[in-house]
Amino acid sequence: MLHFKSLISRVIPLFALFAFSLVAEARAEIIIKHYQHQDRYKYGLKVLDLALSKLNVPYKIQFPEFLDVSINEARGELMVTKGVLNLEFMSTNPEREEKMIPIRIPIYRGILGLRLLLVTQEKSEIFSKIDDIEDLRQFVGGHGVHWGDLPVYSANGLKVVTSSQYETLFTLLRNNRFDYFHRGFLEVWDELDRNEDRLVVADNIMLFYPHPVYFFISRNEPELARKLEEGLNIAIADGSFKKLFTEEMKGYLAKGNLSSRKLIILKNPVVPENSPAIDASWWLPEKFQKQLAASQ
Question: Which CATH class is domain 11-110+212-255?
Answer without folding.
Answer: alpha beta
